[in-house]
Design a protein that fits this description.
This protein is an alpha/beta fold and 218 residues long. Strands 3-2-1-4-5 form a 5-stranded parallel beta sheet, with helices on both faces.
Length: 218
């Protein structure tokens, strides 16, 4: 009786040295192409032409200056600023939340005070954008405002993550997104500066985490 075989010989094809070099060259070309387009993908700008602009209040002065220009040029009728508490150490006078700080800054840059509404979120250690969106949703319900369409403006490569989270919180609304320019580095060559590399890599990891692991909670 023939014993059953435990092993079987098979032929396998492996690349030659030149084959490996070609594969590595193709991989390098693909990686370079992805790197060149990564910032543009993260810094999504797809406004829908809504009348309401939601502003992420934690942005810096250059980004808020750009926000004021966008408000004037695109005909928005209402601005909602977001953000949680500002922790200053040592304690100092000033706005208590990023929502209030952004509202004050925009008013100083010519946005009419009567169209600005700061909607401050509570202090949280994580998922701040998500909880800011929840706070805007709850405020809109409490005030009787129908947020059926609005644009969100966020800081450069953070924009796509903000867009994704706001669409999850407002599944029935039309939500657009605007990304500000990146003022601390050249967005087209972000990998050439430590600030740009850190920003893009951090936002890439954050976006992947939101897409694969984040579970919304109220």
């Amino acid at each position: 009786m023939k014993r059953p075989a435990l092993l079987r010989r098979r032929e396998i094809w492996l690349p030659t040295l030149w084959g490996w070099l070609v594969f590595l060259l193709l991989a390098a070309v693909l990686a370079l192409g992805a790197a060149r387009n990564l910032h543009g993908y993260l810094a999504a700008s797809k406004p829908i032409g809504a009348r309401v602009l939601v502003v992420e209040g934690w942005m810096g002065p250059e980004e808020l200056e750009e926000t004021a220009e966008i408000f004037r040029s695109r005909g928005y009728e209402r601005v909602i600023t977001t953000g949680g508490p500002i922790v200053r150490w040592p304690p100092a006078a000033g706005p208590r939340t990023f929502a209030d700080q952004a509202a004050w800054y925009l008013k100083e840059r010519g946005v009419p005070e009567n169209v600005i509404t700061p909607v401050a979120a509570r202090a949280v250690s994580a998922d701040r954008t998500y909880f800011s969106a929840l706070t805007v949703r709850d405020w809109a319900k409490a005030s009787g405002m129908q947020l059926e369409a609005f644009d969100v403006i966020s800081d450069g490569p953070h924009a796509r993550r903000s867009w994704l989270l706001y669409r999850r919180v407002f599944p029935e609304a039309k939500v657009g997104i605007i990304a500000t320019r990146s003022y601390d580095y050249d967005a087209a060559k972000w990998w050439r500066s430590s600030i740009g590399a850190k920003d893009v890599i951090d936002q890439t990891v954050g976006l992947i985490w939101v897409q694969c692991c984040f579970r919304p909670r109220d």
